Each structure stands twice: as C-alpha cells, then as structure tokens.
Amino acid sequence: MPSETAASASPGGADEQSLAALGKAAGRDVGFAIDPVRLGDQEYARIAATQYDLVAAENVMKWETTEPDDGRFEFGPGDDVVRYAEATDKKVYGHNLVWHEALPAWVKSLDEDALRTAMEDHVRTQAAHWRGRVIAWDVVNEAFDDDGSRRGDSVFQQVLGDGYVEDAFRTARAADPDVDLCYNDYNLEWIGPKSDAVYAMVADFRARGVPIDCVGFQGHLPVGGVPGDLVENLERFAALGVDVRITELDVRVPTPASDGDLRRQADDFGAVFSACLEVERCRGVTTWGITDRYSWVPSVFPDEGAPLIWDAAYRPKPAFDAVVEALGAGRPTRQ
User: Fold this and answer.
1) pLDDT at 48 (0 to 100)
2) Is residue 278 part of a domain?
3) Which residues, 6+ apart, have CB-to-CB distance to 91 below 8 Å?
4) What is the pLDDT of residues 293-302, one digit of tens each?
5) What is the pLDDT of residue 335?
6) Residue 214: C-alpha distances to residues 60, 83, 182 (Å)
7) Which residues are registered as beta bridge partners of 253?
C-alpha cells in the first residue's frame, strides 16, 4: 500500500523496499545525479546509500572542473564520486566529456587546430583516468537544437563543424575500449525534428562503424509532459543496436505544489519508469538529484520546482510510491 511504501523510505526503513533492490529485480539501474558536497547532509547520504545503485556526477566531471587550464587536470572531486560509488557498491555513469557549456574560458578562444587537439587530449586523458571504473560516458552532450539542426552556440560546432562528434567518440573508444559510449540530449523523448536528427546520426554512426553504444534521453519534463510516443521512440533507437537510458529525469510542477500537481507528477514518474521497463534495451533511469531541497529547477524556471521524488524535508512524495509500483510491476529483461 502507498502508506507502507512511503514508510519504507523513511529513516530506519527496510532495505528490501529500496528502489535499487526493485530495479535490480527488474534488471534496471536506478541512479541519481550526485553532488559530493551534499554527502555531508545526513539524510541525503542515507537515501543515496540505500535507494540507488548508480551515480552520475552532477558537475564535477565537466570540463571546467577537470581541466580548468590547458593541460592541467584536476580529477580530485570526480575521484571523490568514484570512491564513494565503489565504497557503496554503485556503478558510475560518466557525465560528460564534451559539452558546449561548463567550459573554461581558454577553450573558447582556440583556433581550429588547437581546439581539435584540446578536445581530443581532454577526452583521451579524462576517459583514460577513470578507465575500468566508469561503466559509460556521455561522450558528447547536447549537440543539437530543437529544430534538428546542429547547435549554433557551440564553440565545437562553430569551429570544428559536424565532425567533432564523431571525432570525440573515436577518441573515447581509443582511450577506453570497454566503456559504453553515449550521446546525451534533452527534448529527445518524443518523435520530432530533434530526435529524428539524432536518430539519423546514430544510424549513420552504426552503419559506418563509428563507436556508439547508447543514447541518453535526459527527461527534464514539465508535469503532464511525458510524451505518448516515448516507448515507440525508445524502441526505434534500440532497434539501431544501441542501449537507451533516461539520464536526467525530473518533473517540475508549479510552486507551491498542490495535491493534484503531486498526483500528476507521480503519474509522470511512474510512466517514465514503466516505459523503460517496457523497452528491453533500456538500461535504467537516473533522476537529476534526490531531493527538492537541492534541485536546479527553481533557478531556471520561475514559479516551478519540486521536481524530484523526495521533498525538501526528505519526505517521500507520491512520485516515490509511483516509482516503487512501476518497478515492482516490471519483468526482468536484463541482468
């Protein structure tokens, strides 16, 4: 029953009710985006330890942190994430190697040859540093606009052109032959110009032997925004021979949230987890954080927030119950 499920997530709850345990039984990873600084918050650390089996670094594996100056790598914060994951028996999903945001200023001023060299060196060095300790990388993040064109505001696109994406994937494969290499983007969840463009790129890569193993569908959604063709869309990518993941799920609601908003949010979380369970090659779902207390959403979307499954006081929301129900109904399709 919902009340019993909620109680299981409260302090002292039973481990067998954890999302990670339910996900494992269904053959799916259940992950969250981690900020290692938050581990000093006792409730954050407790939920992280007991409810999830995968972590993705929210920020500390991005370029501005890992290579703030040309050739000077700072892996300490990312190492903290990896050590935490290993100590708590979690997988690490690497996020990310190449993105037009979160870049140090020195990268943005390079000419074509220098930028290509810097990108390849960055990908090679970072992927090699965590080789064998990370199960997958978002090699390139957010290379397309919503109309299906390549992003005009990306320095990599402006200076290097379309080929930088392929170059990054080939460089990552050379640095770590065993890690899964993923393309990750937002607004891919439905069939439309953007997902069609990414689909065409992935199909082309597969046909030409460019290494790509998975596609990440971020899932930053407004309440009521789960597309009706989500499963169909995931399936068509999977049919290309790649895995799919929901990589950054949150569902924002108007704030302050009403009971009705929270019920609709629960329906959306349940629908996304159920969609992943329906698609055999969907490896799992990662939420972009644990608690509403630390979410990025209110700083970007005025008058919206509360997008996660624990509220700001770490109380499980109806969305938690919906995820438990979806995972509990799942059939094991991959171990």
Assistant:
1) 98
2) yes
3) 29, 31, 53, 54, 55, 85, 135
4) 999 999 999 9
5) 38
6) 22, 25, 5
7) 305
What is the model's pLDDT at position 113? 99
Question: Are 45 and 93 within 8 A, CB to CB?
Answer: no
Which positions of the chain have pLDDT values less than 70? 1-16, 330-335
Show Cβ contacts of residue 75 under 8 Å, excluding neighbours closer than 6 positions.
Answer: 66, 126, 129, 130
Find the domain containing 238 and state its range.
2-329
pLDDT of residue 331: 56
Is 189 catalytic? The answer is no
Per-residue CA distances from 260 to 145, 156, 264, 276 (Å): 33, 43, 6, 25
CA distances 238 to 100, 147, 199, 202, Å, are 27, 22, 10, 10
CATH code for position 143: 3.20.20.80
Instruction: Give me the pLDDT at residue 15, please.
Output: 39
| pLDDT at residue number 52 | 98
Task: Determine the Cα angle at 46 with ends 260 and 333, to 5°.
Answer: 70
On whether residue 239 sits in a domain, the answer given is yes
Which pLDDT tens digit goes with each residue over 104-121?
999 999 999 999 999 999
Instruction: Choose the catalytic residue: 58, 67, 189, 248.
Output: 248
pLDDT score, position 17: 77
Does 290 reside within a domain?
A: yes
State how many domains the chain has: 1
Q: Distance (Å, rounded) from C-alpha 251 to C-alpha 87?
A: 30
Q: How far is CA 186 from CA 7, 126, 180, 324, in A?
A: 33, 24, 19, 25
- Residue 335 placed within a domain: no
Question: Which of 215, 276, 274, 275 minimizes the C-alpha distance to 241?
Answer: 215
